[in-house]
Amino acid sequence: MIEEKGILFILSGPSGVGKGTVRKALFSRDTDLKYSISMTTRQQRPGEKDGVDYFYKTKEAFEALIEQNQLLEYAKYVNNYYGTPRNYVEETLAAGHDVFLEIEVQGALQVKENFPEGVFIFLFPPSLEELKNRIVHRGTESAELVLNRLKEARKEIEMMDAYDYVVVNDHVDLAVEKIQSIIQSEHLKRERIAKQYKQLLEDEL
């Protein structure tokens, strides 16, 4: 019997492309995927559970983990750290579960450096015009901020070469189906299966 390790899938793309919407739609289907729980130094809010919503850490504990290279990526927003704990990801993969991480482009590039064996999926807007509409229709940002976000998005799209797959998010359900196909095909890759069989043969000898 082959014991298959899980695979880390990283969904990323420019701001406003709909990463969160696609991830929620993917997890609303019957899936064995485990969501990558982030770690943070921000205060736990009422109703939130440690190890479910986030792993909550003190600033000192978080900084110690940075020093020990125990985070696949991290960033600081408004005086709080947020990051992806290496241990949780590696233990979940070792237990045979796939782990799914949805993250900004800069964070994904950090993960690629620290965990190159992950599978990187770039969520692409149908067009820059469509991306502009999505950012504008959020209605939460000034014209100047919208322009800055679009410039940033253009730069992020240029980083697409760092990814293994590109999925155009023109329709959420179609994007989810494409991601499910990627997950399935990654498990059928010859290199992964060959590695498992090699282990199986060694165990038999």
Automatic annotation (TrEMBL):
Please list the residues that bind ATP.
Answer: 13-20
Top-rank taxon, per record = Bacteria
> What Pfam families is this protein classified in?
Guanylate_kin
Keywords attached to this Swiss-Prot or TrEMBL record, sorted alphabetically, are: ATP-binding, Cytoplasm, Kinase, Nucleotide-binding, Transferase
EC nos: 2.7.4.8
Subcellular localization, as worded in the UniProt entry: Cytoplasm
Q: Which Gene3D superfamilies match?
A: Guanylate Kinase phosphate binding domain, P-loop containing nucleotide triphosphate hydrolases
What InterPro entries does UniProt report for this protein, alphabetically? GK/Ca_channel_bsu (IPR008145), Guanylate_kin-like_dom (IPR008144), Guanylate_kinase (IPR017665), Guanylate_kinase_CS (IPR020590), P-loop_NTPase (IPR027417)
Task: Name the CDD domains for this protein.
Answer: GMPK (cd00071)
GO MF terms on file? ATP binding; GMP kinase activity
Q: Which reaction does it catalyse?
A: GMP + ATP = GDP + ADP
SMART domains on file: GuKc
Membership in a protein family: Belongs to the guanylate kinase family.
Q: What does this protein do?
A: Essential for recycling GMP and indirectly, cGMP.
This protein is called Guanylate kinase
Query: Which organism is the protein's source?
Result: Virgibacillus massiliensis
